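Subject: design request, 150 residues
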């Protein structure tokens, strides 16, 4: 059982806490009532670093790879993608999904690696026969396969 009197260590700790400032728990001031830093401008908040909250339009356009999933004004989903998201798959999509599921069951892999996914795609007969239509920075274009050649 602990004695009633405080030890020297506890007294020092209590004094240090007391020296740091007033006990904020005793205050009736609601600190949440003020304007949040996120809603202040750079000048008001005193932030001097780069603006990171909104990307400049020029940067957004430069980073356009053709792979963005978010749609903005003027961007529509392809019909195949819309129907796939609604649960209706084309025969090509269904074949791919079933091939991946079969690979997972046969190899007892819940999450195949990207290399394994590429291997399944090649086993389905997919080959690179034309140049890509998306922009990938610092990624060399692999050689194209001749149609009919394996």
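Subject: RE: design request

Done. Sequence follows.
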């Amino acid at each position: 059982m602990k004695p009633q009197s405080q030890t020297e260590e506890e007294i020092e700790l209590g004094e240090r806490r007391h020296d740091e400032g007033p006990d904020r728990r005793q205050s009736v001031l609601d600190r949440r009532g003020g304007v949040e830093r996120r809603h202040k401008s750079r000048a008001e908040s005193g932030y001097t670093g780069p603006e990171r909250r909104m990307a400049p339009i020029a940067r957004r356009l430069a980073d356009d790879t053709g792979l963005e999933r978010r749609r903005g004004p003027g961007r529509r989903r392809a019909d195949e993608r819309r129907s796939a998201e609604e649960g209706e798959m084309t025969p090509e999509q269904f074949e791919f999904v079933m091939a991946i599921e079969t690979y997972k069951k046969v190899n007892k892999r819940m999450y195949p690696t990207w290399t394994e996914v590429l291997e399944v795609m090649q086993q389905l007969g997919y080959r690179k026969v034309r140049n890509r239509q998306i922009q990938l920075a610092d990624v060399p274009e692999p050689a194209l396969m001749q149609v009919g050649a394996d």
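The mean pLDDT is 75.
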